[in-house]
Amino acid sequence: MEPFAPGKSLPLAVELKRRWIALRNRVIGSQRFQQLAARSPLLRPVARRRSAMLFDLVAGFVYSQVLQAVVEAGLLEQLGDDPASTAELAQTGQLGLPAMERLLRAAAALGLVEALGEAGWMLGEQGAALRANAGAQAMIRHHRLLYADLAEPLALLRDDRAKPTALSSFWAYGTQGVDAGEYSALMAQSQEMVADQVLASGVFDRCEALLDVGGGRAVFAGKVRESYPGLRLGVFDLPEVVAQIGTDAAGQALARHPGDFFKDSLPAGYQWISLVRILHDHDDDRALALLRAIRAALPPEGHLLVAEPMAGVRGGERMGDAYFGLYLWAMRSGRPRRPDEIGALLRQAGFSGWRSVPTGLPVVTSLIVANT
Questions:
Q1: What is the mean predicted confidence (pLDDT) over 249-266?
Q2: 282 catalytic residue (yes or no)
């Protein structure tokens, strides 16, 4: 994008939008307007809401640390249908009474727990939802690495992804097989949420054979099999990762294909191939190479499913650009892409067309289906 120069001629629609934004910002940024809004019965609710939103941005890191403390202290497991006292929770979290009281009050302010008077504490609405979401809990625990990398955000951005980070070391460590177990466990837990959204979309209703590329421990493939028991399924991933697929009925029904999708050809014979939270992990050159390898492996009238959080998708804007934008920068590889950016890569890779498929929770994943 070229820098704006005063006096430069802009398309009419862009110029009108620029004028509106400039006017809006002058009004909102005026102390006189802010004082008026705080006093006006009509504007006061709007002013309070905007003030709260701004403070949430300021205090967001503290909120995230309260969340991490609640998860790591074991409070979600301790608080079930029955209340627990501060003393009981302090013992569970290995904290003193004053510290646990402080944490519980902070967690209550965020809706994670709820006070029940002298009876103690129970889970709040947010805590109850989180307790049922193992994938979100796994990511919260994993975030200690991200928080360490973001301690100096401008320093992280200025080094142009040249220096190793806590996140880049973790992902390289896992994929090189030194600790593939921790790497695969995190991926498995986070894929549960994505699988539910994919299956709800019905994209596999006419699918006969599916290969999940980068499929890890086959969590996604296993969920697909539960909904489509007659579907022929395969998983392609690194040898040390594929070796961890279980030997239960679901595992036995899966064809296991060990290999490196940047070095080895993908197996043929599958009508569909899926990429679940894989493409955004890679820069454009490697993403394009992977898409070309998939195109070569698919038959005529074959299909590719891309499932991952995407930038610019309504309802998932913050997750796409703000969260994954910084996460993938710290990871030293990949970027969040808009659907049209993925579509451009698909065209370059030789796919004839693509379409977006809506999901109920774009904050979890968006979907694209491409045709050979």
A1: 84
A2: no
- 3-state DSSP helix/strand/coil % of the chain, to nearest 5: 55, 10, 35
Catalytic: which of 143, 280, 282, 303?
280
Q: Tell me the angle at which helices 180-201 and 166-175 cross, rounded to the nearest 10 degrees.
A: 90
Percent of the chain at pLDDT > 70 equals: 91
Average pLDDT over all residues of the chain: 88
Return the CATH superfamily for domain 156-371.
Vaccinia Virus protein VP39 (3.40.50.150)
pLDDT, tens digit (0-9, with 9 covering 90-100), for 283-318 = 999 999 999 999 999 999 999 999 999 999 998 888
Check pLDDT > 90 for residue 205. yes
Q: Which residues pair with 237 in a beta bridge?
A: 258
- Burial group, residue 130, by CB count within 10 angstroms (0-12, 13-18, 19+): buried
Nearest 5 degrees, angle CA 367-CA 370-CA 372? 165
Predicted local confidence at residue 335, as pLDDT? 94
Quote the distance between the C-alpha of residue 206 and its chain's center.
Answer: 28
Q: For domain 59-131, say whether CATH 1.10.10.10 is its number.
A: yes
